[in-house]
Write a structure and sequence with these properties.
Layout: E1 8-11, H1 15-27, E2 33-36, H2 39-44, E3 55-58, H3 67-76, E4 82-87, H4 91-103, E5 107-113, H5 118-125, H6 145-153, E6 157-166, E7 172-183, E8 187-189, H7 195-200, H8 204-224, E9 230-235, H9 244-256, E10 263-267, H10 277-288, E11 292-298, H11 305-310, E12 315-318, H12 330-345, E13 349-352, H13 358-366, E14 371-372, E15 381-382, H14 386-404
Parallel strand pairs: 1-2, 1-3, 3-4, 4-5, 7-9, 9-10, 10-11, 11-12, 12-13, 13-14
Antiparallel strand pairs: 6-7, 6-14, 6-15, 7-8
Helix pairs in contact: 8-9, 9-10
Amino acid sequence: MNDFTIKILALDDDPFLLKMHGHMVANLGYHAVTTCESGYAALELFANPNESPDLILLDINMPEMDGLEFIRRLVERNFNGSLILVSGEDERMRQAAEKLARAHKIDVLGHLHKPVTPAGLAELIGKWTGPSQSKPRVEKRTYGAAELRSAITNGELVNYYQPKVLTGTGRVMGVETLVRWRHPQDGMVFPDQFIGVAEAHGLIDDLTRVVLTDAFTQSALWRESGLMLQVSVNLSMDNLMSMDFVDWVVGLAVKSGVPPQMMVLEVTETRLMEDLRTPLEILTRLRLKRFRLSIDDYGIGNSTLAQLRDLPFDELKIDQSFVHGACNSEKLWAMFDSCLSLAKQLKMEVVAEGVEDQADWDFVRNRGCDIAQGYFIAKPMPAAELPAWIESWNQAFSNLRKRIEPFH
């Protein structure tokens, strides 16, 4: 239900458009509307807490103080309301401004191109929930090297598995291994809170070996039960600095009885490396041993064309930032298609990460992407839950196909 007592500020240097936006907002039932023709005048409202707006309709391109500077001034005043960007600039400019505001931790309900329509404005204002209803920010705890070392030694790390699905048939063809830390006091701790610690303190090799060992063991158990899945495991570039790594991984495959081609080793280069000779040799030798190689999070960080040129990757994973919402963004659509086309020309399989909803699923499927992964399909889960989930997914996908495909 809309809260019609919300205080709205319309900020635009064009007097005619400003008056029109004010009338439009009032006609939608929101009567606490203030209009300002300059950023300086708008900032004066913040001197009185009772006049501070809950929601600002902000033009990006204004003389003297443009919308981007105004956003920075809002941060200085600890603005905890929301923004709707209203501009005649092209979509890329509006998206850049929206990204800037989000980087400043300001809530953005969306952006509109001038001339604004009442329906578009009503839809975005309707998203407003108010700061009192927003979730409080919880500071993530940081962990030290000693704690993580104990966790590795004491067996507190556990693997979760996120399904990967063929878009053409819906068949679950594999899983990605995602490590969790089952902390005795803090509960489940996610990798963004400890992988960096492991890399910074020389623990990443020990951590990766635990994850890989458990993944091979689980793969063997699934195979014994008749479940044939490719199992992907993330590697750090630090894992690829020791020449004995290849022999150790090969030994794991032999011991577990898992064929190397059923294991996918995902590489994300989080920083530039001065000497690529050792990683290049290790990855090439792993490929010679028939392990599959995947370049993860392609399109961000240091994942570059040079890596595709120099390393024998079988699979390319398009980063989720180019997938979710791409159907509604010309820029993301173009970037997605560029990555997809490049991988296809190099005869690589392509995985779309971050498939979060039906629109994302329809998009990647219609664009011809091979494999999809994301919360629309399933969240990461313990290994024991996977067989039952696959049964339910197969049934759900079968029902979906019956609804969307004509009867023959």
